[in-house]
Amino acid sequence: MTAGILGTGYYVPERIITNKELEKTVDTTDEWIRTRTGIEERRIAADNEFVSDMGVRAAERAIQSAGIRKEDIGLVITATITGDNPWPASAALIQKKLGLGNTPAFDISAACSGFIYGIDIARSMVESGRYKNILLVAAEKLSSVTDWSDRNTCVLLGDGAGAAVIGPVETGGILSSVIYSDGASREMLYQPAGGSAMPATEETVKNKMHYLKMDGAEIYKLAVEKMPQALDEALKTAKITSEEVDFVIFHQANIRIIKSIAKRFKWPDEKNIINIQRYGNTSAATIPIALAEAVEQGRIKKGDIVAMSAFGAGLTWAGSIVKI
Ligand SMILES: CC(C)(COP(=O)(O)OP(=O)(O)OC[C@H]1O[C@@H](n2cnc3c(N)ncnc32)[C@H](O)[C@@H]1OP(=O)(O)O)[C@@H](O)C(=O)NCCC(=O)NCCS
Asked: Against a cut of 0.90, is the pTM above it?
């Protein structure tokens, strides 16, 4: 049995923050952000809008596009690093809000690679025959861990959610998925406090230790090394050449990273699905938002071969080839 993507959906919050608005609060310029990152604006969730709320909206659209009933879902997996609470899982909240009875639900924490990690897990579970239809949701409220006074990070991030239903298919489907991690470099991109190593205290709050910290330059170097490696392996495993790929979707962290890797694989701009200019980096949600949006716009169609690759905190990196 082969697993495939049966349907996709996405949701982004209404509120838009433009680069111009950020110019008023941190020492930055629209010009710097556009040229160094490709980002023009990002969406920010409302104060009372959380990962589970955004996840449910994306999930409902994915279920509808898959043409199944929500009762047909056997498992809910949520990829997030900014869940409604540190625990329990946001997947359980999404399960409850969708009215899925006692359907099992759990979260995975693989940061920006979370959606492809989820594809790898869901695929194995469908192909083993254990579950039929799995709802995979990737949702982030990065604005809740953003230091809005740090120009190095606040200009990069945004909120949003993407979802996919993974189930058995007759033809095509998930042709390969490869996932990796390296915990040795975890402090290049992480949230220092709020876990068991550094529980919340007045001191941690005062020292801004609950915000995302990133060594941008080092992450950049590793991203342009690891994503091509994952893509090479994913293509080889799928027995697909780079010329056969119809579309590529990279994790949307920096347009310079995206374009330089696409160039190495000789993928022209028409094949490269890019929406970083409108949403910024929404961590696990970037790839499923871009995928669902391109499907909705009729750009990606049934039978197209889509390559995906991500890199992020953990460190984690991943690649997958899917025939839609
Ligand atoms: C963060 C990133 C955009 C920085 O771009 P860069 O071209 O590498 O910029 P540098 O780090 O060399 O910084 C250049 C200068 O711009 C400054 N700068 C940083 N943010 C700025 C901003 N928002 N506005 C204006 N200047 C800024 C820096 O302070 C630095 O100034 P200095 O030279 O006086 O110290 C880039 O490194 C990046 O995208 N990294 C990877 C991000 C990523 O993949 N993240 C996560 C995976 S989820």
From this structure: yes
